């Protein structure tokens, strides 16, 4: 492969260009540049296969260089050199389709490994794999269109098992949100199926990696036990010195690629339940379906509800919801261990919410609250400690929101959360917040990537999922109960967002029968 090296520091630039390891990797450095502007001129002359560039440079930095390269050479792999703390640059690099990241200080072996990995990805058709997941894993194509897509790609339909490895949150460490850590995880995971003698199709999300294992037919290779064994290998391979870890969800075995969206939905259920088990968890969907009872369902519902209140800094709502959750757990016969699971899950989710606002819990706080939960012998003491912790977090978020555009978005979410069943519109919300509705619309889009209607629909669908699980209602009754005026529109949106019809969702998640 032909490499173009771009770095504003001459020592690093020359070191990279003259590494003897390039010869062993059958690579050649065909040019050097001190900034993005020089690199653009050289690309036209030397025609590199790979661009190896620093992110922060004068004249034209690595991000600007990548944006310019993408216009003419859309498929050229770009490897970025970066520092661990340059998260904002890295997020932009991800948006531009970074092939990989190498963090400074680096070793020659790191760079050679990344380039050789690029070559293996090209050989294994990684772009086709991403297209496979995009076409069959979403809801934009009908079942017949998906079948036609397989025919056009000349792909034989097969049985499969889907696994998903997601980064665990690392308490007290910003690396848990490191936007280029995932690239290293994907590189590591790609070797695991090969080591087990299996072929895997791989796709990357914003927080994890899917591995689809195709089989000729249902059988021993596609059993849950084999999936669990592979998941354990995946977890072991991703362990790092800084405590980074992954948890792995496992779908059922399916007979056809056309069921990929349903498998992805099952993975979502697995990862929701992960917060009650902690990091390094292996979660098989059919096992979860067996062991998750009413107590666990109520815990998940309560944790989600309280996390939404935390995002708005609503102390009164948090206090009331915690008290209600505690009463429900006791009435259902929850044990001390059950309540500990709930409290730890709530702590996990609250730390994720804090990180959404750029607030990182101190290691002492993160450890201390967990020690309190595990050491408390009196259940009321446990809940009081959790309430104090949650109210402190709500106060920190509320202070931040008072001085941030996020306040209006948070208040909009609060209004939706309370009134999603009503005929709510952007205009009525803007009037209540005393802002121009057009300005509020732009602000919501900027902060969330969604428009107001999408947010409202998502709240209604989440509320519908809870009603389907816990109430003996027909699908159209659920639709009207959560604010939809058209049951057909509700069913269409529900399937688009979950991959399942309301009836299938109720059946697969163990809701009350109609």
TrEMBL record:
Gene3D superfamilies: 3.40.50.2300, Homeodomain-like. This is YesN/AraC family two-component response regulator. The modification 4-aspartylphosphate is found at residue 54. Residues 410-508 form the HTH araC/xylS-type domain. PANTHER family: ARAC-FAMILY TRANSCRIPTIONAL REGULATOR, HTH-TYPE TRANSCRIPTIONAL REGULATOR EXSA. PROSITE patterns: HTH_ARAC_FAMILY_2, RESPONSE_REGULATORY. Keywords: DNA-binding, Phosphoprotein, Transcription, Transcription regulation. CDD domains: REC_YesN-like (cd17536). InterPro entries: CheY-like_superfamily, Homeodomain-like_sf, HTH_AraC, Sig_transdc_resp-reg_receiver, Tscrpt_reg_AraC-type_HTH. The lineage of its organism: Bacteria, Bacillati, Bacillota, Bacilli, Bacillales. It comes from Cohnella phaseoli. GO terms for molecular function: DNA-binding transcription factor activity; sequence-specific DNA binding. GO terms for biological process: phosphorelay signal transduction system. Residues 2-119 form the Response regulatory domain.
